[in-house]
């Protein structure tokens, strides 16, 4: 049996990374629920997936940067609803210092979302929390949900963490258009890979993820032009490599990568910086 049997298992995988980071004496974030949510299955994925341990830095850095952006945007932009799509085992509604009046809605498939809410049933969220089970690949279900939630709020931050890479390009385009159709959806926080990284990930994990029905598919080299055509403007773009250095969570031989960036031609260096990106998109009216 493969360590990853479906795309929802990737949530257990990432939860195991969050658990390990949280248990470090110098942890850059604390998720007291991660070990419980990851369970033995999450630990097994990390133990058996090729080079999973040495790849943890990227997901740890993503978690921290997303934490920072969510807190900043909620406080600065008077956001009244955070819509977390394909929420998986994310626990920000329980662990971040969020306003009590903020609404936080997690959306995901029933199996993984019901598992999370059951595991956390005795814990108190920091804000007004709601879980909605839905298949976001069903356009009619997705559009009805966006219409309903969009009408109930005025300043919405949408999160798609770890989702887009598992979609076809056409599905990403459809999702972007559907989000733009809700006028109160003002900001969109997501992570992106370029084609160079997708090629590396395919060599490293492609066969395992494909056997588990979770192949990585989507990459974009120039998110500015790609998303602008769909009604979204890039207003923040954070390189995972740069953020990893700031947070002291670089990959093995990270110093060498930084040296290569300094001596490489500008175009090549920018391609390397953009291998993994954390991006805030703003709605174009």
Keywords:
alpha/beta; Rossmann fold; seven-stranded mixed sheet; 12 helices
Description:
The chain is α/β, with parallel strands linked by helices. The chain has one domain: 3-Layer(aba) Sandwich (Rossmann fold). Helices cover 48% and strands 16% of the residues. It is built from twelve helices and seven strands. The protein has helices at 9-22, 34-48, 56-76, 92-95, 110-119, 139-151, 169-180, 195-211, 223-228, 240-247, 254-263, 266-273; strands at residues 81-85, 103-108, 128-133, 156-160, 185-193, 232-239, 276-283. The chain has a seven-stranded mixed β-sheet with strand order 3-2-1-4-5-7-6, with helices on both faces. Strand 2, helix 5 (110-119) and strand 3 (128-133) form a beta-alpha-beta unit. Helix 1 packs across helix 2 (34-48), helix 1 crosses helix 3 (56-76) and helix 3 (56-76) crosses helix 10. The radius of gyration is 18 Å and the shape is globular. The N and C termini lie far apart (48 Å). The mean pLDDT is 93.
């Amino acid at each position: 049996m493969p360590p990853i049997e479906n795309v929802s298992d990737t949530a257990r995988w990432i939860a195991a990374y969050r658990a390990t980071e949280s248990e470090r004496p110098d942890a850059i974030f604390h998720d007291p629920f991660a070990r419980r949510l990851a369970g033995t299955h999450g630990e097994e994925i990390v133990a058996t997936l090729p080079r999973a341990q040495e790849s943890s830095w990227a997901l740890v850095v993503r978690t921290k940067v997303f934490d920072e952006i969510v807190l900043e945007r909620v406080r600065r932009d008077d956001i009244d609803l955070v819509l977390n799509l394909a929420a998986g085992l994310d626990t920000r509604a329980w662990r971040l210092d969020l306003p009590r009046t903020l609404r936080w809605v997690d959306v995901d498939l029933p199996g993984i979302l019901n598992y999370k809410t059951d595991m956390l049933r005795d814990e108190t969220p920091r804000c007004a929390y709601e879980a909605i089970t839905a298949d976001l690949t069903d356009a009619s279900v997705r559009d009805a949900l966006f219409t309903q939630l969009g009408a109930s709020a005025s300043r919405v931050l949408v999160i798609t963490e770890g989702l887009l890479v598992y979609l076809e390009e056409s599905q990403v385009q459809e999702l972007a258009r559907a989000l733009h159709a809700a006028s109160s959806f003002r900001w969109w926080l997501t992570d992106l890979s370029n084609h160079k990284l997708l090629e590396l990930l395919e060599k490293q994990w492609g066969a395992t993820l494909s056997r588990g029905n979770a192949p990585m598919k989507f990459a974009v080299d120039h998110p500015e032009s790609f998303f602008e055509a769909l009604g979204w403007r890039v207003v923040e773009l954070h390189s995972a490599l740069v953020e990893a250095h700031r947070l002291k969570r670089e990959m093995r031989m990270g110093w060498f990568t930084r040296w290569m960036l300094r001596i490489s031609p500008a175009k090549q260096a920018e391609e390397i910086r953009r291998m993994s990106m954390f991006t805030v998109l703003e709605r174009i009216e």
